[in-house]
Amino acid sequence: MTDSNEDYVYDEESGEWMPASELEERERTITRVEVRDAVGNLLADGDQVTLIKDLDVKGAGQTLKRGTLIKSIRLTGDGQEIDCKFDGIKGLVLRAEFVRKR
For the region Disordered, what residue ranges are annotated (predicted)? Predict the structure, then answer.
């Protein structure tokens, strides 16, 4: 039974409005994709990683050097891609095979 004062949110998957707590519970039960770095360490949202090789960033005209620290990564749901923030580069997505967990 849901509380009559509970917030409802739109679920894009089902196309229905549902109580926020119900949607949150359903998302929690969905199996998460495991993302592992170059040496096999399990990565999670908020981890810090270090680049293991120089990477040319397409569209930014920059090269990220080996050893560069990337803070607060976010998993994308893809088994090999992580979303990152880095000064001067918007929308940076790195392959997990090029990073090592710090």
Answer: 1-23
